[in-house]
């Protein structure tokens, strides 16, 4: 059944690509659905198909060689593109990390299980490149963001039902765990908030998205999600205020103070309910610290890593969890270290953690650098919002591993793709406005068609 569904899905890629090329209104629908789907990953039947599946047999951040609906749509979009390419500097950091993960298979106890992780990052490379190519065209990023907003709206409905209908102290929405939902919220909250503060048209849906996302974050009752969301809001506001204070931004500051007075009791109530049901015991047993110790012991013994997707197998079966003082219950021993950086280092070694950090830093720096330069237009503000989203997700990842989960990775690498695509387009428009003939690269021809016809930078944008 699953392979029949996969065959049908691949058969649909050609007609979908033809529709993307020839039907004017279809790209908006396509990219909106593309933005929604990652939010449905855990709840949609046949969202993904395991070509090889070790579910129930292997414990890691991925259980098999998978293909999902998002991957199929990415292939369809790739077939629809004309001539052009994304420059190597955008792709190289992720390729280097994929190479480091592939090399870690040489140290893996189960090379096939390690290949599951390499395959997942290869799929994310496809997602990032396809989204970057698509965002060379104006409006594509907005369509994807509208899809993300709709996905978050679906989670809000689920969260409200779980909190008030089922009485859950920590709502997880349509995902399996509240930490996944909290991390995913960063990719929605900050880009939409940046456009809202800028005054981009469509204020109503931006405002509703920001409010819905904040409610979702609060009802997760996750300390890290709530705390880092608040930090990100203050940081984003400070950056955009430095870019130029406006009446809208001053009104936001006043409205934010009022909203805080209203939301604070709701947040306090959520945390009270959580801690009443599950009191904190970190003064007696700090689980995160124990996991970190186990990962550090693994790194000491295996400086080149133990193989991607192998942390639990090695920590549990080779005495590292016991040495680190991880609680002996099966649930604890089967858990992944709650720090993405320790996870990357334990599994892919010192070369892997360097490549991992490079992969994360390049798109963030690109977003903040280009966004600040273009801070007086909507694209620049969106880039700053995306850059802050990545920064907060990276800080949050010091306390969670879920940045390795496919649900979060789809949103993470989609955000990276939007950053590269918008930045390349803005660079092409900017270069075309200068009296220098240096726009011969294929991606610049595609991104800056209007500019190449003699228009100034800023025309033909949003």
How many β-strands, per DSSP? 2
Which H/E pattern describes the elements? HHHEEHHHHHHHHHHHHHHHHH
* Helix content, binned percent: 55-70%
Instruction: Give me the oligomer status.
Output: single chain
Kindly report how far apart the N and C termini lie: 44 Å
Strand content: under 5%
Rg from Cα = 22 Å
CA-based shape: globular
Q: Pick out the low-confidence regions.
A: 436-460
Largest sheet: 2 strands, antiparallel
State the secondary-structure class: mainly alpha
Please give the order of strands in the largest beta sheet. Answer: 1-2
Mean pLDDT: 89
Number of helices: 20
What would you note in describing this structure?
With about 450 residues, this protein is mainly alpha-helical. It has a domain at about 90-280 and about 335-425. It has 20 helices and 2 strands. The protein has helices spanning about 1-10, 15-20, 25-35, 70-80, 90-105, 110-135, 140-165, 180-200, 205-220, 225-245, 245-275, 285-300, 310-315, 320-325, 330-335, 340-375, 380-395, 405-430, 440-445, 450; strands at about 50-55, 65-70. It has a two-stranded antiparallel ribbon. The radius of gyration is 22 Å and the shape is globular. The model is unreliable at about 435-460 (pLDDT under 50).
């Amino acid at each position: 059944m699953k392979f029949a569904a996969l065959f049908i899905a691949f058969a649909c890629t050609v007609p979908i690509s033809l529709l993307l090329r020839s039907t004017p209104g279809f790209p908006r629908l396509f990219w909106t659905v593309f933005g929604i789907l990652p939010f449905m990953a855990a709840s949609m039947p046949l969202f993904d198909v395991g070509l090889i599946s070790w579910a129930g047999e292997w414990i890691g951040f991925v259980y098999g060689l998978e293909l999902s609906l998002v991957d199929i749509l990415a292939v369809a979009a790739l077939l629809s593109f004309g001539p052009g390419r994304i420059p190597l500097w955008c792709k190289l950091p992720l390729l280097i990390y994929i190479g480091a993960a592939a090399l870690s298979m040489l140290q893996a106890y189960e090379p096939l299980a390690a290949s599951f992780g390499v395959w997942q990052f290869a799929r994310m490379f496809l997602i990032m490149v396809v989204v970057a190519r698509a965002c060379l065209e104006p409006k594509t990023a907005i369509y994807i963001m509208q899809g993300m907003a709709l996905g978050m709206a679906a989670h809000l409905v689920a969260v409200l039902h779980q909190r008030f209908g089922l009485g859950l102290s920590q709502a997880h929405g349509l995902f399996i765990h509240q930490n996944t939902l909290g991390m995913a919220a960063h990719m929605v909250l900050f880009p939409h908030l940046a456009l809202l503060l800028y005054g981009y048209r469509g204020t109503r849906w931006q405002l509703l998205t920001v409010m819905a996302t904040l409610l979702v974050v609060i009802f997760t009752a996750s300390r890290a999600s709530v705390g880092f969301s608040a930090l990100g809001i203050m940081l984003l506001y400070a950056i955009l205020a430095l870019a130029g204070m406006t009446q809208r931004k001053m009104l936001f500051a006043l409205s934010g103070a009022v909203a805080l007075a209203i939301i604070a009791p709701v947040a306090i109530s959520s945390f009270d309910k959580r801690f009443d049901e599950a009191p904190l015991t970190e003064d007696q047993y700090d689980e995160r610290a124990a996991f970190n110790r186990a990962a550090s012991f693994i790194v000491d013994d295996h400086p080149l890593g133990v193989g991607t997707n192998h942390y639990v197998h090695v920590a549990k079966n080779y005495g590292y969890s016991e040495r680190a003082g991880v609680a002996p219950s099966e649930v604890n021993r089967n858990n992944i270290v709650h720090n993405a950086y320790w996870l990357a280092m334990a599994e892919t070694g010192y070369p892997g953690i360097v490549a991992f950090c490079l992969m994360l830093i390049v798109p963030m720096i690109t977003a903040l650098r280009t966004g600040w330069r273009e801070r007086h237009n909507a694209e620049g503000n969106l880039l700053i919002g995306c850059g802050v989203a990545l920064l907060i997700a990276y800080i949050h990842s010091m306390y969670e591993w879920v940045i390795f989960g496919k649900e979060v990775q789809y949103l993470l690498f989609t955000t990276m793709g939007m950053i590269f695509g918008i930045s390349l387009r803005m660079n092409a428009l900017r270069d075309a406005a200068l009296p220098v003939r240096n726009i011969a690269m294929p991606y610049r021809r595609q991104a800056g068609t209007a500019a190449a016809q003699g228009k100034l930078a800023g025309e033909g944008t949003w």
